[in-house]
Write the structure tokens for this entry.
Amino acid sequence: MRGALWAAVVALFGALTPPAAAQVTFGSPADPPRLALGAGAFDITPSASHKTSRTAGEFRGEYRFADTAWIVAPFVGASVTTDGAAYGYFGLAFDVNFGPNWVLTPNAAAGVFERGSGTRLGSWLEFRTGAEFAYRFPSQARLGLAVTHTSNAGLTRRNPGEQSVLLMYSIPMR
């Protein structure tokens, strides 16, 4: 009898409780491909043990494809710094949606790095991992903050790595 009463109370509570305001979903199959442009800082935590390490301005451009393999979307991009460094890369990302407007996009990429006169990362082959937290507008445009780490993953003896923070704006291509 007591168990039935508890079950009835739980069922009544569940029926009267409003649904959660934000549902977490993975992937954005309805979103079109996007052109993402960003500006921020490269090597925000310069290594004191590497004399070439220093913070510089960074500008980034990416073409982000729509979800192509389940929730995974490829992207291709390039970035340049005010110290003359350049990085061209290809990667994969996926969206974690917090309701219809907030999106977290973890990503990973690999590419070719040319250091210019700034931070020396130790290799021409560099890997980048990071995430972007963005607001999705009704137009499907996004405005977000991207945080990334670039490193050669220990391919060479010199591997200081660097962190970047950028403000990103994504424009839908449809």
Summary: Strands lie at 24-26, 34-42, 56-64, 72-81, 86-94, 96-98, 102-114, 125-136, 142-151, 162-172. Residues 11-17 have pLDDT under 50 and may be disordered. Residues 28 and 100 are 10 Å apart (CA to CA). DSSP finds one helix and ten strands in the chain.
